[in-house]
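Postdoc handover notes: sequence design on the structure in folder B. Input tokens:
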């Protein structure tokens, strides 16, 4: 009942070789304005300041998540039987659209605006937009079902788990893709083995015991990618600076110094206005970076200095946090150098545990199908048991202009 494309479409991809599309609805969504916008947003935001080839977009990641989900439906034994035709289509759409509300440099943006991209994704899907009309035309039940899958409210939790769970299509794609495009090997793991050993048990996605080694690798890949790529101190420095810049923009609007009339998307994000779907469509890295170009000559010294620093990669330096005394001294140096610490200092804490099988959070547990029944991963894997017992790694850094450190 859902139209097929005349012939199967394939898109070349360095991670999955090909992305296969045979549903007209998916093809139309790929060609929608909202999904095409993701070509103009880098998947890793500021990581390209460290890994110069990390230029891949959220568009290619979205296609990758769709492809892994498509393969899971086809290849994971027992999964297709659990899903109606409608649910299979809704799941594929959810995979393709899961990041559709992402803006440029999302994390820095969200720190200041407190508007989260997940909510914007759901807004684009459920309220008038190009993708909304494509979905409504194919099946009016789709927007609501996709929103429920993405927000973990769908009646069968299995569908949400496939997109966002302890072993999910989202993470499997971004780890492999980010490793490939940063040129690091940390994120590699055997996705073929994982897909082959996934099973459905009750309403849950589980792994056969023979897949445990592939899962251990996947968990280590996460751990290394976090510390080597996602939390790289130079990326964090760039993020800290973009947050400061957003904060200054927000303060300028509040103090009447600047209204940003030429960049209405900033006004909407940094004030209490409701963010419309049109505003989201106007927000991408192109529009944001072009705003920074013009701000370089702004009469407000903080706006012009921070924009110029970000554009020309004159980033803040950093030191490990040791004591409050050290921190106070640094803030003092920043003031003496004529900078306002509100915008030229930040204390940034990063923590990450590769796997947290805590009892209160069933969502984060990986279950292994053994001959004695289902067992939680850390009770089966010696490596994972050791990681779980260890202390969570934490890293606190202080960021400031290099001459103040
Ligand atoms: Zn994603």
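Designed sequence:
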């Amino acid at each position: 009942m859902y139209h097929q494309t005349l012939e199967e479409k394939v898109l070349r991809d360095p991670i999955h070789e090909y992305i296969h599309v045979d549903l007209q609805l998916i093809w139309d969504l790929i060609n929608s304005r909202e999904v095409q916008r993701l070509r103009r947003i880098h998947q890793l935001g500021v990581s390209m300041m460290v890994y110069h080839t990390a230029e891949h977009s959220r568009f290619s990641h979205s296609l990758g998540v769709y492809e892994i989900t498509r393969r899971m439906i086809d290849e994971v034994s027992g999964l297709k039987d659990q899903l109606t035709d409608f649910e299979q289509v809704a799941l594929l759409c959810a995979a393709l659209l899961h990041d559709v509300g992402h803006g440029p440099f999302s994390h820095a943006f969200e720190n200041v605006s407190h508007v989260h991209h997940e909510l914007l994704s759901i807004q684009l899907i459920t309220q008038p937009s190009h993708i909304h009309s494509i979905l409504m035309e194919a099946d009016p039940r789709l927007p609501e079902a996709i929103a429920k899958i993405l927000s973990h409210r769908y009646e069968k939790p299995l569908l949400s788990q496939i997109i966002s769970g302890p072993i999910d299509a989202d993470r499997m794609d971004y780890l492999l893709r980010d490793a490939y495009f940063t040129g690091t090997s940390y994120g590699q793991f055997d996705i073929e083995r994982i897909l082959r050993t996934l099973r459905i048990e009750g309403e849950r996605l589980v792994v056969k015991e023979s897949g445990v080694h592939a899962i251990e690798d996947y968990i280590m890949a996460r751990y290394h990618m976090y510390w080597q790529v996602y939390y790289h101190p130079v990326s964090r420095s760039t993020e800290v600076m973009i947050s400061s810049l957003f904060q200054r923009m927000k303060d300028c609007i509040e103090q009447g110094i600047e209204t940003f009339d030429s960049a209405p998307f900033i006004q909407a994000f940094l004030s209490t206005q409701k963010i419309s779907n049109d505003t989201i469509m106007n927000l991408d890295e192109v529009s944001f970076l072009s705003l920074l170009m013009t701000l370089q000559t702004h009469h407000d010294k903080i706006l012009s200095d921070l924009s110029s620093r970000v554009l020309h990669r004159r980033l803040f330096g950093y030191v490990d946090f040791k004591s409050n005394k050290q921190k106070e001294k640094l803030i003092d140096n920043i003031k003496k150098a004529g900078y306002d610490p509100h915008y030229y200092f930040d204390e940034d804490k990063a923590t990450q545990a590769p796997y947290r099988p805590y009892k209160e959070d069933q969502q984060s547990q990986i279950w292994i199908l053994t001959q004695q029944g289902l067992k939680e991963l850390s009770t089966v894997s010696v490596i994972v048991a050791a990681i779980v017992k260890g202390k969570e790694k934490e890293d606190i850094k202080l960021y400031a202009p290099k001459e103040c450190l």
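Context for whoever picks this up: Residues 39 and 390 are 40 Å apart (CA to CA). Don't rerun without checking with the PI first.
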